[in-house]
Amino acid sequence: MQISSVGGMGLLDSLLGAEGRKSFKRKDSDAGEAGKALEELRGSLYNELRTSEGAKRQQQRFCGPVVAMTFNFFVAVGIILTNKLVMGRVGFNFPIFLTLLHYAVSWLLLAIFRTLSWLPVSPPAKTTPSSSIFLLGAIMAFASGLANTSLKYNSVGFYQMAKIAVTPTIVLAEFVLFRKTISFKKVLALGAVSAGVAVARVTDLQFNAFGACIALAWIVPSAINKILWSSLQQQANWTALALMWKTTPITIFFLLALMPWLDPPGVLLFKWDINNSCAILSSALLGFLLQWSGALALGATSATSHVVLGQFKTCVILVGGYILLDSDPGLVSLSGAVFALAGMSVYTSLNLKESKDGSNKQIPVQTPVSKTKTSENGSEDSTVIKTTNDV
Fold this sequence. Notes:
The protein has one domain. Helices cover 76% and strands 6% of the residues.
């Protein structure tokens, strides 16, 4: 059998010849190179997802400004209507406890993501002071809790009117903290947006003294909350989910501290039937999506753009109700909404123009430079591409 095997190999070698043996070796080499390339690609993808910089690049790749703001728009409209239903028809008049349920469900979902290794990696601890994470978690509790409390005691119109004051607060805070300024054209556009929303909602201003105080107290935490979310994601390589995982426990702690002060007594006496529980759970799930989509929008744009998006929701709901649902808010309100939408269009176009100009400044400019290259057989003219950066 051994002689036969050796003879068979010799016969195969004689039939294939030298070229055949080289062909087999080449195919084996190609297969090995393909496998090696596949392993390198797999390793690079793994490293991309297991670092904070890579996770941030993936978030920016799949969730740009348009996707993030559209996502946030639909979720925000849904949760405003759902919370009004929960605190109105369902009769769950505990806004801080409702906010606490939102963040508890968010923390549970994030824990599941972490168990399944779906949670993006956080940046190294030394890159972000722990005081910044603690401050963001605490401010988030006040911003979210006071927002739901304001929605309970005030009408949706007054709630949206209070958001107008958030815009100048953000501009002032960013100037004080980061020396960030905006152009005069943007100031005019934001002024048009605010004026239009004020006119559009002037007929729906139902509030009481306590509700007005809550709305005023909500303005500053809301502005600082948006600024911190935006700056930490854009400057410290945080992703939305990773930052939510770090800050949510702190937010829950402060919401527990706020409950005795702002919630009325009797939460344990509430009737927890199937319908009520489903409505509150739907609100909690939307709360998680709102926090996530809001963080994505703040990471992709800016705090001011996120506030303008909030005013856009108000005007779209008003105009859409008039067109699709035959509602009649009045000529004054419709005119204000259209004026605000025009201001938002101008503000958006100015943002797009600035981002386009900024990207053009960082694109390498290729300038052909003629250069003579000498070879062994003589001199030969060739073109060398010189790359310069336009600063």
